[in-house]
Write the structure tokens for this entry.
Amino acid sequence: MSEPSIFFEDVNEKQGTFHRRIFLMGGLTALGIFALQGQLALLQLVQGGKYKKLSAANQFNFRILPPPRGQILDRNGNVIAGNRPSFRVLLIRNEIEDLDQTLDQISYVLPQTEANRRRIVRDVSQSQRFVPTVVASDLSWEDFSRVNLYASEIPGVQAVMDEIRVYHYGGAFAHVVGYVSKVSEKDVKAEGENPDSLLLHPSFRIGKQGVEKAFEKQLRGVAGAQKIEVNARGNIVAEDPNGTKPPTPGEDITLTLDAEIQARALEVFEQDSGSAVMLDIHTGEILCMTSAPAFDPNLFVSGISSKAYRLLADYERLPLLDKAIGSTFAPGSTFKMNTALALLAAGVTAEERVHCPGSYRFGNRTFYCHKKSGHGSVDMRHALKYSCDVYFYHMCNRAGVDRIHDTAHKLGLGELFDLEIAGEKKGLVPTTEWKRTYFDGSSRLRPKDPKWHPGETLSVAIGQGYTNVSALQLAVYTARIANGGKAVTPHLIKKIGAVDKNVVFKPIDIPAEHLQVVREGMYMVSNDADGTAYRNSQLNLGDIKLCGKTGTAQVHSYDNAKTRKASIWKFKDHGLFVCYAPADNPKYALAVVLEHGVGGAAFAAPKAREIMKVALLKDPAMQARIVRPVPVEDAAAAAAGPVPDIVDVPNPDPTIPPAD
Amino acid sequence: MAESAMTRRGERERYDVKLLQVDWGFALVLSLIAGIGALVLYSVGGMSWEPWAYNHLLRFGLCFVLMIALSLVDLRWWLQLCYPAYAISLLLLVAVELFGEVKMGAQRWLDIGITDIQPSEFMKLAIVMALARWYHEAGIKDATLSWKLIIPLSMILVPVLLVAHQPDLGTAMLILLTGVTVMVVAGLDWRIIGAAAAAAAVAIPFFVIFVMHDYQRDRVLTFLNPEADPSGAGYHILQSKIAMGSGGFLGKGLGLGSQSQLSFLPEKHTDFILAAVCEELGFVGGFTVFALYAAAIYMALRIATLSHSHFGRLAAAGTTATFALYVLINGAMVMGLAPVVGVPQPLLSFGGSVMMTVMIGFGLVMGVKVHRYQELPRSQSFFAQFE
């Protein structure tokens, strides 16, 4: 093939150079492609195994499945602490490119307030890289599904559904049941070497108080795991049903408490400060353990604001303190049954009489009775009935402080009961031994005064001085008197999972006749028209009678006239009332402490009566006594003595039926 | 018969004769690459023609027709278009600089009412044509060692600086390397080449430290040590390598590549499509793609050597250089041999601009084949062509 072309030197040279250079270019390109093929072979054929593993690690992930937390139930199966679903929106910091833009996108689906937006920006900047920030929680189902629909479009935004703790009775169980809250660093450390991975789950809440804390292990359950396939954003693409280990739900815990009594108890306290503890005197089951004022534990679940927390913490009526077990005070006159039993144990008979002129001179000091005009001649039963201080001043040194302590020990005063929830305080019933070691001069705060002065026994005898006890102890004390001397101990847990807790109690070493004497005294307190608590002890439940004892405990020494005159709330006396019912066949013991409530008879007793009535009216055995069906078969008997449905007249028979 | 027909005067101007002269084997290789691209786009689109695979095939089809049509255009027309095309591309780059829209952090796009355009794409082609035109007219002395080399050098550097300022370092580098390649194949003196290479070796570290934007520097530094921060800047490279490596010899199968399907792989449908190919089709697939690219480059370079005109030779070589640079830079990037720069794999990646540039360029290359015997006049002045 011949080409008609004109060849120039220059053109030829240009073409020749080009051909050499193009060959070079082709060679270099071939070399480049060859190198890439080599790298491809290295990656895919030589190192393929390594990258296959990395790819699998990318693709699969284990997600913790939090177990549902065990429920806390009352004795009748009412849910005190349960779980409810909660919808939340989370923001994952390291997946967000532009926070402002992301928040704009979110607010398009989920309107945000300016303040909330500022909070999110602050939280995000402070959060760690992989820890999600909560944008919104407790969304409605509509909001949640809307966010869920669009969340996959916005990088770094996740809509999640989890469970959140809910306390159905609000403040009524706030102290006993406690609450769960966010896991703190301290909680993680407390778990030891291998903390449960569940603790790091954003929805997990740990028990911080009361039963929630004490039974954390049982309530928590065991986390499950789910093998999931995730994409680069961490969004779940597929779930592997074979790789799923379901979570083990936490065990339910049934308390001995009765939600109805508990709720009513908090109600009767209204704004007052104090506590009430009710026991079944035979089983030791705590039916009610209230501390007032209370707080709403639900506030703590999602995180209480520091402002709200300060309000609770700084309030002088101490809503955060469990006053039923964590607060001790002088028992005042409610202690006199104990002194009486100590006297009986020391050989004093119940019939011995003491003349009360209204005061008692001991050494160079005059001790006054609460009734300045005096009670006249009183025996032991009447000393209890009138709460005559002079009788006990006069008699107490025949028993001595150590015997008073021994009796108190047998009755549970100044004792710890291992209630299984934390915060129980021991209190004190003094002994000469205690005085010797406590006032041995080892502390600068206490003058050296190791000897027990008999004058000090006078204060102890009427429940003042060094003596201080808790409301729980007073309830146990009353129960042990009422049950005829069985060493009943209080407990709060009826069942964990499916296991019942049943305990048999030993007798305490106090003769039944002695207990009978103080019970008679307590009957007279509430049922004799001139008893100290007669007016406020009337149950109006037919022949079901209440036996009680009032008490007024000095908070502040009256020697200091200023504080007395000022009548500042926190210097006012505590009002106390302990009681049991029914008088003829006791079942329930109750102690009510009204802090700075001035008088036991006037202010604590009415509350005790209301609480006691709830328990009695619920009890089927009591209902059978109050509400009697009209006999149908035995018409003659019905005609002979018709019994009204509800007996509303006081029992005309004043004799006291035996207690057991 | 064709051979004899070629010898008759005027016969070569007939379009049916020209069509026979079109390099259909070359066209087949390009179609195979685009076909594999569509297959993988179908897979990473969730085994669906939407949103990528269908569009990709449609665009390729249109571009293919355009390419064949352009291959029939007389080389004299191309020659006359060179400087105007370059001037318009340059003006558009200036317009972007002044009125351009900022997208994804860089000012590259110009809204011309109907659609957004990226003038730097056109410049890739325009620079090749303008240089080919200049060298076509220059003597061998001018091309080797002469003060006149300032002209082609300026023609290269002005658009490079404009594009780099957008900033689009990948495209700037591509234009620079394409221009330099044309200069080299046109016969640049080895001493200049050596001196420039030495200067570049010294200047690059300074450039990295003082001129680059932070994200660009991050990419370069990350490239040097990709495992340092797996979820940060080195994430792309690492995920890409995991995708390719885990593919093994035969691959995971279409639609079964966990890296691509679960979007661990970034830009799986554009810049990182090669990683998706290698993950799902394995070494076999990757090797085939590179073999097809090598075949295409070989065929295009062979066409360059066939041309009787210097313009045809340089235009074909320059266009092929752009294509080869795309292939090599993108390949090195997805395999962790080069820093991450925004360079797609031509014909394989989804994206209209690049496909159009490449196919128009190949239209020119095929035109050079069709018109390989055509002698083109050397006009001494810029205005001679209008006489």
Remarks:
- The longest helix of chain A spans residues 9-46.
- Chain A has two domains: 62-255, 259-295+319-626.
- Chain A is about 40% helix and 20% strand.
